[in-house]
Amino acid sequence: MNFKRNFLKSGTILLLCLVCSASVHLSAQKNANTVFYEGQVVDYCSGEPLEGVEVRFWGNSQGETPGAYTTTTDANGEYASLLFGYDTWIVTVSEPSGPTTPGQYYFTSSQGNQSNLDFELLPGDWEVEINGDPISPLNTSFSPLVICKGQESCIDINSEFKERYGSNENIVYCFRGRAYRTDLAGQKLELLAESPCITVGDQEGEETPPCGSGVDLSQALGQIEEIPGEGLLLLIEVEQFCCNEECQPAPESFTNTQEFFVRLQEELDFDFEISASSQVETANVNTPGNTDLNDLVVPRSETLPGTTVGASSFGVIITDDTEREKIDGFRVIIEEVNCNDGTPVITLYDEEFEEQDFPSGPLLFTSELVGPPGQEILGYFPLNSGLSGESATDGKCYKLTVIAESECGPLEQFSYFNILQGCPFCLQDGGGQTANIEADHSLQVEAFPLPATSTLNVQASQIEEGPIELSLLSSTGQVLQNMKDAQASKGFNHYEIDVSTCPPGLYLLSISNSQQRITRKIIVE
User: Fold this and answer.
1) Number of C-beta neighbours around residue 205 at 10 A
2) Angle at Cα 329 formed by Cα 328 and Cα 333, nearest 5°?
3) Closest C-alpha to 500, from 483, 485, 481
4) Which residues lie closer than 8 Å to 359 by C-beta, 6 or more apart?
5) Least buried of 83, 105, 112, 423, by fewest C-beta within 10 Å?
6) Strand (E) positions, 126-187?
7) Tens digits of per-residue pLDDT, 267-303?
8) Cis before residue 449, ω within 30 degrees of 0?
């Protein structure tokens, strides 16, 4: 232990001697050029001290390589540094960026120590964000950000800047955007629109929706009336300055400016309707917008309990006036919701489609797996809306949401809906035409999905208990499969027919009970 202790003491003494020797040598060589500089950095707008500002000292001497040293301000905005080795010094604020007054200090070492080297700084370490995302570094007049008129596009200042400076109640900055028409090279031509102020620091009252403390850029650009078909190229200039009542920078006052390019387009048309049978049309006779009771579609409704839909004819149709060539894909969501306030209960369906994969006709949900997670089935709504007995959809409300992804961003439309009770077979026939079977018939049949690929689901409902017979026939009438259910119950009966070995083509499905026979065209792919 003594040996170790003595070794450490000896090593320490040696280290100190080396430091002393180096210091004495350096002092002898540079003593004549040693100076002490100190000062303070304060906010240009308020005079408040700024902590963490980087101050840089640039040193230079004839015949020597220039050098630079940095220090940062303390909580009082003050800095101090002992400098040596050069004949002249330039003192500047290096981080954050932004204009200062004065711009710099210049001294020679022969002028000795200097104090009160103070700066006023308008911090420029902010970034413009659109919908929470920074502007791409690749943004140019040839690769602009696309914004659609009427599409919510919130422009704001990044949260890091707000947190750093907005916590001081005495520091207040204003930001304002201006939109200029430009030529193809991005040169300004004329001022077209201005945004309201964005304020950072000392904000009174609550943030205003939809953009909180930011500005809805598309609303500001709504001042622009005429937009050519190819869109309008704009230069957006965001300027930071000390706040005043006019929300304009005072004459000759400091400002910071950031610019980016936008191509403004007319609002993209997008909407959907719900497929329906004639009986479903009649059930929606009082639904606003349902002016044509023979077009086999019903309008969507944003008011609870929503549009009444048929359990089997229920599907979504993108309207003809939707500009599908400008849409990249669709997302379709079905939720069960609270009938009083629309709050979600459970998600039953959530699928994404490439635009070219989404049908031009209705996307029928009898051909889709629908249901609670892990319990999805084909025919979820028909199976749960029985013609007799307890119905799992009775008294429930649902929400259908369709989101279109486009270069304008996501476009969303929704409709509340409920299932028409007592009419589960308001259905699609094999030829793709909507058919309704009268409610007083003794036998009602639905087959799905159509076209079928591996399994054909058949639902048969009758008004009293009795045997049901099903036959799958070729297009020439040859019986390929036959099934008899001697104990078929009153109400719903569900059957599955394996068509996986059937060649693609047209088939006939025959279903009968003691009182009626129904034949349906079936397509197998």
Assistant:
1) 5
2) 155
3) 481
4) none
5) 112
6) 128-130, 133-134, 145-148, 154-157, 173-182
7) 788 999 998 877 787 778 777 888 877 778 899 999 9
8) yes
